[in-house]
Amino acid sequence: MGQRWWRHPGASRVLRTGHGACPRRVRMPIVLSSAARPAIAGAFATQGFVFISLTTRLPDFSDRWHLSEIELSGLLLMMVLLAGVGSVLAEQLVKRSGSATLLRSGLALLALGVPVLALAPAVGVFVAGMALYGVGLGVVDATSNMQAVALEHRLGRPILPSFHGAWTAGGVVGAALTLLTPNFPLQGAAVLALVPVLALLPVAGAFVQRDHGETLHADAVVVPWRPILLVGAALVIFYMVDTAAATWGPTYLDTTFSTPSGLVALATFPYLVASGVVRLAGDGLVARWGAVLVLRVGALLASAALAVVVFAPTWEVAVVGFTLLGVGVAVIAPLSFSAAARIAGAAGDGLADGGDTPGARQARVDAVIARFNQFNYVGALLGAVLTGVVGAGNLRIGFAVPMVLVLLILPLARAFATGRQTWTSSTPTS
Prior knowledge:
It is a multi-pass membrane protein. It is found in: Membrane. By secondary structure, this protein is mainly α. 70% of the residues lie in helices and 1% in strands. The protein is built from 17 helices and 2 strands. It has helices spanning 28-55, 58-64, 69-97, 99-118, 123-155, 160-180, 194-199, 225-256, 269-289, 291-311, 315-329, 332-345, 358-372, 374-390, 395-405, 409-412, 417-421; strands spanning 4-6, 15-17. The protein has a two-stranded antiparallel sheet. Strand 1 and strand 2 (15-17) form a beta hairpin. Helix 4 (99-118) runs antiparallel to helix 5 (123-155) and helix 8 runs antiparallel to helix 12. The longest helix has 33 residues, at 123-155.
């Protein structure tokens, strides 16, 4: 027997082997993946921790700067819109620098924006800090998902749910920290900037590096936007439900029931915990049962959970409903990003052999993920507005809206079927 040639699914070039087993060199992509996974999870956890830590302190910031509800809503809208800008910037810049470099840049923006808004001597500086944080949030949001789908495709198995579980875990820690330190000086929130700084350390920042191979064919391949838009519709529905629970849940407990003032946060805290647990277990659930079945069962559970919330006779029953809701919708977002990336990555499979280079796939998938991330902000805005406007006189009616809309996941789940069929295929991304 002569020499043999072997291509690793995550490699950008063919590696030559001699007689017998493949040499150690061909296992390097797996070593990279195992090192990258905790780094990427750390980026997700950092984003969740800082975001929830800040949003749970918004009433304190509002009191400090004497902001009305309309002014505070305007600031939040500004932050969401600038996060969208950050995501668009990531889409454009990733073509030149890669998602690993941009993720580090986004984390640096978070580390800079947080102390600016926390230590601001004037309201204008506070607004500037919020703006800086918003742009960084969008960059981190887009590039962390690019990194996650890149690693998922290199490993060839579903891992997006556990990454989003890391975000939720970070959020739970952030919410718990706020609850445990109610009298902590607001300026002390500046120390939150230490978390993204830690995520920038060389050891923690072992992100997946992009293949700088030829990208000539990236623009020549037409991305199948129709199935991606169907998956995006599911992401919009998730964030509508998620925002309704996070934004209006505490208000619902406060205005609809005689809930003790110190316990209204139970609308969101158990929701986050339940969602985090299911996301961390979601990799195995999806690998065993497939995305379509997991999504449909979750949608039915979520609708039933919201029915418990809407018709709850007491606040305790409503809390149970919010907890079950976290279980039902937990994996919609990660599976949406995963499916969008796989659809985009497979778009060039019909080309002649060698026509779709790893670099072309990287460019296509990165662009799709950055653009796909916009569905996040669309859903968040719609969820906050629809629930509040429809439920202006009675929030029970407001929560009936997501109770019905989440059932749209049942037909949309078919768009996720492609994902389960291609776990063994190679779609390297950056």
